[in-house]
Amino acid sequence: MTAHSDHRPVETVETAINLLGVLKQAGRTGMGVTEVATELGLAKSTAHRHLQTLADRGLIVRAGDIYRLSSWFLDYGVHVRNQHPLYDLARPKVDELAAETDEKVWCVIEEDDTGVHLYGADGAHSVTTHARVGNRTPLHQFAAGKAILANLPEGQIARIIDGHGLSERTPQTITDPGELRTELDSIREEGYALNREESVPGVHAVGAPVRDEDGHAIGAISIAGPANRLRGELLTQELPDLLLGAVNEVEVNLAHI
Amino acid sequence: MTAHSDHRPVETVETAINLLGVLKQAGRTGMGVTEVATELGLAKSTAHRHLQTLADRGLIVRAGDIYRLSSWFLDYGVHVRNQHPLYDLARPKVDELAAETDEKVWCVIEEDDTGVHLYGADGAHSVTTHARVGNRTPLHQFAAGKAILANLPEGQIARIIDGHGLSERTPQTITDPGELRTELDSIREEGYALNREESVPGVHAVGAPVRDEDGHAIGAISIAGPANRLRGELLTQELPDLLLGAVNEVEVNLAHI
DNA sequence: GTCTGTGTTCGAATAGCGGGAACACACTTT
DNA sequence: AAAGTGTGTTCCCGCTATTCGAACACAGAC
């Protein structure tokens, strides 16, 4: 209900997070003390002290006079991924689907009202989009996301649609709340979601939700490929059938944990 | 020479990092406010405020009254991995080697005087050890690590051997500095390193360094398998040959960036 | 209905964060 | 050579923002 928290945050921690964000953007090049300080509007001394503590704790690494993010994040990130129940369960299915269809297959989970790409497998003729593992994407913009969104508790659906607004990604992206709701109805009815160039021009996709025992989606699996290949009955029949069989198996295994 | 820094750290940031560490340990179960507070010796209110800011910034996610790490770390971690020059270059070779040998193949990099597992590929008969992507391991304890260690600048080698001490992992782990130095000499001479149950009982491995234009190792690739399969000429001839060919190609590509 | 466990909020004291100025040092520039 | 410009580093002081403890709300157990 409340768009969370005016509650006074720990500002020092926030600057540390901002610092890490800036270093992420800097990438492999990294940044020096003064550069970080000006970028964040801090005194050189404070930037220095922050960088030093983060380096001492191993979050960032110093090479000469430039700092960059260390593999500490890889360690934590992989840990998060491995802990997720869908990772172990969906990964083999995702690999299978990629091998069978020769297309790009994704496993996506819901987190904080958005979709997160947990695992992806390449088929022989995979399209490469900008989607990467760890990426957060608004749920209404892609097949897996819509499949999830259609199967969330009603309160959460309302919060997502009315709250954040429906940002546009391509001209085909559904940005009208009413239109999206009827789309979600049809997704629930069919059991799967389609994406016709709504997130990437020239790319179509099919997505199906993975639901828990309450029927609420915890994630989804999707198959994506070039629009001229994924069309007709392949897009509306064969791939959905394949996909629904796969997610069904995942759901069964999920229940038996 | 100095084991770095008595320099006054930013304590607030340190507690935030500690908090994340505790939440990592808690895994998917997560932790509540009081649990975190007692674990870290903080007042409930401070733990509460920290958790709230971390959640607001998306680093952790709250489900009911328990908090756990979010995929924020996956995003940052994958970013770090993708940025590393060895990832793009070594990955195809690692996949190839795994397919050819049917064994487990790792790409390891050096960071902060330790080895970090950057990428791994499974062969048809892979052994599964506790090594995971993102894991930090002391360089002297495994084949890839020793291959790296043997090809670092002398100053850094001395710092690693004399500084941290040589911790034991199995009875076979080399813990004597003198013994390690002669081992490193032989590794430099042969071009590759062997690991005979020095990190995992029953597991042998071969590792070869990936060197930059100065001849210093930036990482290594290793092949690991059961001791009774990896022995004789396979271990000392065939696999090293295969491996040295692979790292050589990687080095060439590395120079042409 | 009481009790014990949560999470949450408030105010108040002081520790420690942040800033600025001076320092050391490495490269250019003249 | 010497002055100049850019680093990173250190110190100290003022004031803010962090921390704590205590009180509160709420839930479930007994």
TrEMBL record, chains A, B:
<dbReference type="InterPro" id="IPR036388">
    <property type="entry name" value="WH-like_DNA-bd_sf"/>
</dbReference>
<dbReference type="Pfam" id="PF09339">
    <property type="entry name" value="HTH_IclR"/>
</dbReference>
<dbReference type="GO" id="GO:0003677">
    <property type="term" value="F:DNA binding"/>
</dbReference>
<dbReference type="InterPro" id="IPR011991">
    <property type="entry name" value="ArsR-like_HTH"/>
</dbReference>
<dbReference type="InterPro" id="IPR050707">
    <property type="entry name" value="HTH_MetabolicPath_Reg"/>
</dbReference>
<keyword id="KW-0804">Transcription</keyword>
<protein>
    <submittedName>
        <fullName>IclR family transcriptional regulator</fullName>
    </submittedName>
</protein>
<dbReference type="InterPro" id="IPR014757">
    <property type="entry name" value="Tscrpt_reg_IclR_C"/>
</dbReference>
<dbReference type="Pfam" id="PF01614">
    <property type="entry name" value="IclR_C"/>
</dbReference>
<keyword id="KW-0238">DNA-binding</keyword>
<feature type="domain" description="IclR-ED">
    <location>
        <begin position="72"/>
        <end position="256"/>
    </location>
</feature>
<keyword id="KW-0805">Transcription regulation</keyword>
<dbReference type="GO" id="GO:0045892">
    <property type="term" value="P:negative regulation of DNA-templated transcription"/>
</dbReference>
<feature type="domain" description="HTH iclR-type">
    <location>
        <begin position="10"/>
        <end position="71"/>
    </location>
</feature>
<dbReference type="GO" id="GO:0003700">
    <property type="term" value="F:DNA-binding transcription factor activity"/>
</dbReference>
<dbReference type="InterPro" id="IPR005471">
    <property type="entry name" value="Tscrpt_reg_IclR_N"/>
</dbReference>
<dbReference type="InterPro" id="IPR029016">
    <property type="entry name" value="GAF-like_dom_sf"/>
</dbReference>
<dbReference type="InterPro" id="IPR036390">
    <property type="entry name" value="WH_DNA-bd_sf"/>
</dbReference>
